[in-house]
Task: inverse folding
């Protein structure tokens, strides 16, 4: 009846709402803890807390109802004494006696699901050697510390093939098989996250899963065997070079790895790769007591034959400093451990042979042996240096006077004579020069630029501590790079593991990318050692991120499921690791800052850099009281050698509090070698050692540099989590049964701590308080259809399942109904299955009760519908009447307001008698929907009288040399001839800097020699001179000559000037008489002022009734104009007495011109008061990079016009968007600067990208796309304000500067490739589309880069006011005014790294070299007036 009366969706919705509301079994599940509602009686067994064992079985003696607690009598197996304790009810866990031998393979199937019963279940299963247990889909694995061969046979693998989780006993094979089947079915990447603390068995579990996947993949025997061999053989290599013995694990992974196995669409294994994270390189040079170095060193000493040991100059019985800490001793040759190491080494060599050649294997072993010898090197202080501390600095000063030769070098340390053989052995094994290696250890080379622009090489001697630190850095970095090279070899071989015929066999190759993968994450567990350092902080940060990922992906997804099913279950308070992660990131940011300071030698004399870093952490990171970073808890120490307050800090992790000592963090965070060491490696005789050199750092001339380990680690960690988020994730949680690594002992308290730390408790809470079992209503109906009579089949799925639950009297607290699923408590699904298996049928009495409930439900629904239908018509009529009254009131109000406003507008626009109203209306209609109000005749528009200052740069044709002149002389035989020609042409060519001041045109000669001094082909002692000189004033419209600016022959009369975008030497100017001249810049001759500086190309007189505000060239002209050698100018002007602007498109030919199109532009009425005082302020009027868009901006003005070309080549304009009209903040501000950049290379359908700077220090970016209808439109989704802008608020961004490259010789390869002359190339050189600079009026210069991850990002900023500047010819610049200073700039094309700025206050040209961002050279400064 309801649907028939109302019709449509409204009636259906109301009916569904009423039925759901009247359903007696609606989803009313509540968040009620079963323990809270469970009744405990005297004599009941319970689990009570215990400090020693976590929980122990107890008996309730009495119940205290007043305090809701119990008195219990506790007894356990190890402590037979009886004691009574008072325990709150909330700390008690129910106990269910299932018998001494019965355990549960899935914790969710237990009667009571809580931490105490799960711990007891794990303990019982561990005693029976059942080390694997499920908790829902999460596998819990306890390390047995003994071999269980029956668990891992080939027959056992076959049993788990294509079996669902729960069908077989818990095993890593089941998790791996589930991932494999999901990959085939869902065509989605899978990931296995294997987590746990050190010693929990993560590495072994990862090997089990990978071994299973290689066996079950659908790969032919030959191809699969090759790939399996690669995957299996990679493990012993990674274990030998990446694992070490710790106090808690004899085979602890000291790096994280993500093993990826790649499968084609049919499930065949086609390749594999491994990604490693944060190798603990500091372990190579130092270990804590009871720990060892990496396995490979000990395996080498035990496994190499005597001949090879002699070649490597090693002795197994020698106690090497690098391998044995103070209390450790070498292993006896007849011991089982020595034999095991030898066997492992044989396995390592067999595995290496799979991936590398015999020569490379030999070089790997030689590099490892060389590190052992380097560890034996010792230094001693030279007696003279001890007597006088000033000797070193004196020597350095003496060397600074020359070129830093060795003749005057005085070292502060020397190699101990007893250890010199070790250095020689290491140098020989690495293929390095012993002399050069010793020199690098004893001194460092610095490069200092002098006042005469020459570079001095200063060799600074190292003291003993610095020499030892340099040696340790070399050892660490070489080992880390050796490890990386081995991983690269494994990946290179495994990616094509199938051999040349693999692609044909499988039909897919990794290069094609048509594959999915199963990744296995085996990453270091949470660590809390006696001494925790930088590595432990990084390791624990990874565990924090993975813990948060587990909570978000598993636990939060569980709650999301309840919300989707409309279950009234309160959300759990899940732990949040974000505060800890944020605090650690803050600590690492501070660490990077101090590492950079230390690297630049900004640490004060006598300062402890590690203490300063820790103080900064205390001051910055701990300033908020609720952060998880705390001060160290200091302990009394009689010796006084304990840590002080600023030696570290404490962090509250999810797994507990950890204290970190920050000693040595600054050095550990820098993974870079000094350039001298890099050069030494690069020049080595061994190919492997040469490949370890960082080639990029060889060009670094500033001495030591910073390569932040923490920054790289954070990036890798972010990439890892991003990869995991794109995968379907499966979890294996590994537990360590005890801290002594012994078999058969289960420390319940220790395991309980791990269960809490890994998030299993939160998962248990959800299973306990929620509903771990859920089934689709449709599936349940099919499975249990025979349990109810036939007439129940007419009911809906929800009603049918509800009837099933009522029919068999299942406790209503143990289930609830969602919208699509039935949710059950643990164990209830088995009850239903048993009823079905037994063939149970509901009794007639129960069926009758159910039918009566359905009948009552229908009666209530009918009654509600009848009442609703009686109320509905009157309610609808009342609502309609109220709506009409409200509409009438609103219409009257709007009519009155509009009528009053219309009267005021008419009086304001036309006065008492608007005689020309029709013409104004026609104009408004002509403007394509623009809603500009047009003022009266008394408010005619006018200009400000002064143009906007601009700087242009063009080649000086008079000083442009020819290529042929350099082909006979001046060529360096060591270089390519064309390279030298380009460099010499570039060096001897000059550019002209043209300045339009707003009234006059000036030029200055720009010589690039001072900015190209680093070229080796040029003599060092050549006088370079000034980079800017010879300022001239250009008489453009009369003689075309350039006169010395000091003569000041005439007052300027130029009102506008622009430069051609395509032909950089073509300009146009307009004088006060509206004569517009198009001319070509020829240049100036340094000693000849009579030569013409410009050549006219065309001119015409524009209407004298108009005021010209701006001009711009259209570079891409139609063919009909180009055939006549014509150019196209676009002019912005206003006719006298009119109230709008107009845009004119003019084709200019030699001796004539033609107006192609005129477009009117209106002005907002509310801007007129300010325009009457100041005149029209147009800051920019320019075309876009593609010449398809015209941009107009100024005070309250920002418009984008499309430049259209008709079928016959006729030009016209069409408004794209009036941005100022759409956004009030733009309308009320002044648009000051504009820059159009070419779209990025991989930009898709982007037509143009335009950047706008306003008068308040804001930057806006606008992207323009070409639609399918060939119309240009603003892409609003990616346009808007720059977020990372750091310009001073309220200070105008005066100019936006495009660049043509970053280095002096960046164009050489392009010139050679195109086969053009350098001059032609520079005339059309493209802009850099991925970077630009923005300059504020206050001198703040910011560099912007287009990054893939964050878009346009501010990467560097300086303030030109604050940069040091020396005097010029005895003249010092005067202080600048606060109102305006830097107003214009332009990048050089001849020397792309140079920008020429205009300092209007001090009348200066300033050359800024972007390769030296912290200085302004004196020779690049020139006054122009």
Result:
């Amino acid at each position: 009846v309801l649907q028939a009366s109302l019709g449509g969706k409204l009636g259906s919705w109301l009916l569904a709402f009423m039925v759901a509301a009247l359903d007696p079994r609606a989803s009313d599940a509540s968040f009620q803890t079963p323990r809270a509602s469970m009744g405990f009686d005297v004599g009941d067994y319970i689990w009570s807390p215990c400090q020693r064992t976590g929980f122990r079985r107890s008996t309730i003696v009495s119940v205290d109802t007043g305090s809701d607690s119990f008195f219990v009598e506790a007894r356990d197996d190890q402590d037979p004494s009886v004691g009574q304790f008072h325990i709150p009810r909330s700390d008690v866990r129910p106990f269910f006696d299932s018998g001494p031998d019965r355990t549960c393979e899935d914790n969710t199937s237990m009667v009571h699901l809580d931490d105490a019963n799960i711990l007891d279940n794990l303990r019982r299963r561990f005693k029976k050697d059942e080390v694997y247990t499920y908790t829902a889909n999460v596998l819990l694995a306890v390390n047995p510390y003994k071999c269980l061969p029956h668990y891992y046979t080939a027959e056992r693998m076959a049993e788990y093939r294509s079996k669902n989780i729960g069908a077989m006993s818990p095993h890593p094979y089941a998790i791996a098989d589930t991932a494999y089947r999901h990959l085939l079915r869902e065509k989605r990447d899978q990931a296995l996250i294997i987590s746990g603390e050190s010693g929990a068995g993560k590495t072994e579990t990862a090997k089990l899963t990978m071994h299973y996947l290689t066996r079950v993949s659908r790969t032919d025997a030959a191809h699969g065997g090759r790939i399996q061999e690669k995957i299996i053989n990679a493990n012993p290599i990674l274990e030998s070079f990446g694992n070490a013995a710790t106090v808690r694990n004899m085979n602890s992974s000291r790096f994280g790895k993500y093993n990826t196995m790649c499968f084609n669409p049919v499930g065949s294994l086609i390749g594999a790769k491994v990604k490693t994270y944060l190798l603990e390189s500091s372990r190579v040079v130092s270990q804590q007591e009871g720990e060892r170095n990496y396995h490979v060193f000990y395996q080498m000493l035990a496994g190499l034959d005597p001949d090879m040991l002699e070649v490597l100059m090693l002795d197994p019985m020698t106690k090497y400093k690098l391998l044995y800490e103070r209390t450790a001793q070498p292993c006896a040759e007849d011991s089982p451990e020595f034999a095991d190491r030898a066997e492992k080494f044989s396995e390592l060599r067999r595995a290496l042979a799979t991936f590398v050649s015999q020569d490379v294997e030999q070089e790997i072993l030689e590099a490892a042996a060389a590190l052992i010898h380097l560890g034996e090197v010792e230094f001693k202080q030279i007696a003279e240096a001890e007597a006088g501390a000033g000797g070193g600095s004196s020597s350095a000063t003496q060397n600074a006077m020359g070129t830093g030769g060795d003749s005057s070098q005085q070292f502060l340390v020397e190699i101990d004579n007893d250890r010199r053989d070790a250095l020689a052995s290491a140098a020989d094994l690495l293929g390095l020069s012993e002399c050069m290696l010793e020199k690098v250890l004893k001194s460092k080379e610095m490069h200092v630029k002098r006042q005469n622009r020459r570079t001095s090489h200063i060799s600074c001697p190292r003291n003993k501590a610095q020499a030892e630190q340099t040696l340790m850095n070399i050892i660490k970095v070489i080992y880390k790079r050796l490890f990386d090279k081995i991983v690269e070899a494994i990946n290179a071989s495994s990616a094509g593991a199938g051999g040349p015929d693999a692609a044909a066999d499988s039909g897919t190759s990794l290069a094609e990318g048509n594959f999915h993968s199963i990744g296995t994450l085996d990453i270091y567990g949470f660590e809390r050692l006696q001494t925790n350092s930088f590595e432990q902080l990084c390791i624990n940060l990874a565990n924090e991120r993975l813990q948060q990922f587990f909570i978000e992906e598993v636990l939060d997804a569980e709650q999301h499921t309840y919300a989707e099913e409309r279950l009234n279950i309160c959300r759990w308070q899940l732990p949040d690791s974000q505060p800890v992660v944020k605090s650690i990131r803050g600590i690492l940011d501070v660490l990077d800052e101090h590492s950079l300071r230390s690297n630049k030698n900004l640490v004060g004399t006598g300062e402890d850099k590690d203490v300063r870093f820790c103080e900064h952490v205390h001051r910055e990171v701990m300033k908020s009281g609720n952060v998880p970073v705390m001060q160290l808890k200091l302990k009394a120490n009689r010796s006084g050698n304990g840590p002080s307050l600023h030696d570290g800090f404490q962090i509250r992790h999810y797994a507990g509090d950890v204290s970190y000592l920050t000693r040595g963090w600054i050095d550990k965070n820098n993974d870079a070698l000094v350039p001298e060491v890099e050069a030494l490696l690069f020049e080595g005789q061994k190919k492997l050692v040469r490949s370890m050199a960082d080639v990029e750092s060889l060009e670094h001339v500033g001495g030591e540099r910073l390569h932040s380990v923490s920054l790289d680690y954070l990036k890798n960690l972010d990439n890892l989590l991003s990869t995991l988020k794109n995968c379907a994730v499966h979890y294996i949680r590994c537990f360590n049964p005890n801290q002594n690594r012994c078999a058969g002992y289960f420390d319940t308290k220790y395991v309980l701590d791990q269960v809490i730390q890994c998030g299993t408790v939160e998962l248990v809470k959800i299973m306990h308080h929620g509903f771990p079992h859920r089934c689709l209503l449709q599936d349940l109906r099919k499975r249990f259809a025979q349990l109810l009579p036939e007439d129940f089949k007419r009911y809906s799925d929800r009603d049918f399942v509800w009837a099933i639950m009522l029919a068999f009297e299942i406790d209503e607290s143990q289930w609830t109904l969602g919208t699509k699923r039935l949710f059950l408590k643990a164990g209830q699904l088995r009850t239903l299955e048993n009823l079905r298996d037994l063939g149970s049928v509901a009794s007639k009495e129960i069926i009758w009760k159910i039918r009566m409930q359905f009948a009552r439900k229908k009666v209530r629904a009918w009654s509600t519908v009848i009442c609703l239908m009686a109320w509905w018509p009157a309610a609808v009529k009342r609502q309609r009447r109220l709506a009409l009254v409200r509409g009438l009131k609103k219409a009257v109000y709007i009519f009155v307001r509009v009528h009053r406003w219309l009267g005021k507008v008419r009086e304001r626009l036309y006065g008492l008698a608007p005689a020309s109203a029709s013409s104004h209306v026609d104009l408004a209609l002509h403007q394509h929907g623009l809603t500009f109000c047009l003022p009266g005749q008394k408010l005619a528009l006018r200009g400000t009288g002064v143009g906007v200052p601009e700087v242009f740069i063009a080649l000086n044709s008079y000083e442009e040399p020819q290529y042929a002149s350099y082909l006979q002389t001046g060529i360096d035989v060591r270089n390519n001839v064309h390279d030298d020609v380009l460099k010499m042409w570039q060096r001897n060519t000059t550019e002209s800097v043209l300045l339009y001041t707003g009234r006059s045109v000036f030029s200055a000669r720009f010589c690039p020699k001072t900015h190209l001094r680093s070229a080796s082909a040029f003599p060092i002692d050549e006088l370079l001179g000034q980079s800017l000189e010879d300022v001239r004033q250009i008489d453009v419209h009369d003689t075309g000559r350039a006169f010395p600016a000091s003569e000041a022959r005439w007052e300027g009369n130029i009102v506008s000037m622009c430069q051609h975008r395509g032909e950089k030497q073509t300009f146009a100017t307009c004088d006060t008489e509206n004569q517009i001249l198009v001319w070509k810049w020829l240049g100036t001759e340094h000693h000849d002022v009579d030569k013409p500086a410009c050549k006219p190309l065309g001119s015409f007189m524009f209407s004298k009734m108009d005021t010209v505000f701006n001009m711009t060239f259209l570079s891409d002209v139609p063919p009909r104009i180009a055939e006549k050698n014509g150019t196209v100018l676009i002019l912005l002007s206003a006719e006298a007495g009119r109230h709008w602007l107009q845009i004119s498109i003019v084709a200019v030919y030699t001796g004539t011109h033609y107006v192609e199109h005129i477009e009117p532009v209106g002005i907002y009425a509310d801007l007129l008061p300010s325009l009457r005082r100041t005149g029209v302020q147009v800051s920019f009027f320019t075309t876009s990079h593609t010449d398809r868009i015209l941009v107009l901006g100024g005070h309250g003005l920002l418009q984008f016009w499309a430049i259209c070309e008709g079928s016959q080549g006729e030009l016209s304009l069409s408004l794209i968007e009036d941005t100022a009209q759409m956004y009030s903040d733009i309308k009320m501000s002044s648009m000051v600067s504009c820059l159009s950049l070419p779209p990025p290379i991989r930009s898709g359908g982007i037509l143009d990208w335009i950047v706008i700077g306003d008068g308040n220090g804001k930057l806006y970016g606008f992207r323009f796309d070409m639609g399918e209808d060939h119309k240009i439109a603003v892409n609003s989704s990616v346009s808007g304000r720059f977020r990372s802008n750091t310009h001073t608020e309220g200070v105008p961004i005066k100019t936006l500067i495009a660049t043509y490259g970053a280095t002096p010789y960046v164009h050489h390869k392009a010139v050679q490739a195109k086969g053009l002359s350098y001059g032609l190339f520079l005339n059309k050189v493209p802009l850099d589309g991925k970077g630009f600079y923005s300059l504020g009026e206050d001198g703040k210069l910011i560099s912007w880069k287009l990054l893939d991850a964050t878009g346009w990002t501010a990467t560097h900023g300086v303030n030109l006011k604050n940069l040091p500047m020396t005097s010029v010819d005895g003249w010092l610049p005067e202080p600048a005014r606060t109102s305006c200073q830097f107003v214009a700039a332009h990048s050089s094309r001849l020397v792309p790294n140079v920008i020429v700025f205009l300092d209007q206050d001090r009348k200066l040209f300033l050359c800024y070299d972007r390769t030296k961002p912290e200085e302004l050279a004196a020779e690049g400064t020139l006054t122009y007036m």
In short: DSSP finds 39 helices and 54 strands in the chain. The longest strand covers residues 54-64. The mean pLDDT is 79.
